[in-house]
Amino acid sequence: MEEVGREVGRVTHYYSKIGVAVIELKAPLAKGDTILIKGSTTNLEQKVESMQIEHKDIERAEAGQAIGLKVKDRVREGDVVYKIS
Description:
- This protein is mostly beta strands.
- It has strands at 6-15, 20-25, 29-30, 34-38, 43-47, 51-53, 56-58, 60-61, 66-70, 80-83.
- The chain starts with 5 loop residues before the first strand and ends with a strand.
- 0% of the residues lie in helices and 53% in strands.
- The protein has no helices and 10 strands.
- The chain has an 8-stranded antiparallel sheet with strand order 5-4-10-1-2-9-6-7, with no helix packed on it.
């Protein structure tokens, strides 16, 4: 498998009605970063435009935090999140 970037976390839940993924972070993530979410049937690349912790908008999150991230397409629990820029 080719290297796609640095793993920053994993999807732990997906809210399909609102298009939000809950991601448990292993590394920092900030608004403006470009991420790739990959899984057996997932391959979604997008810029981080909206993230929240406990329903409050944030600009940056650190390793160990669980964030809500607005995503443009369906993702699945267990999908890996990579930071590509």
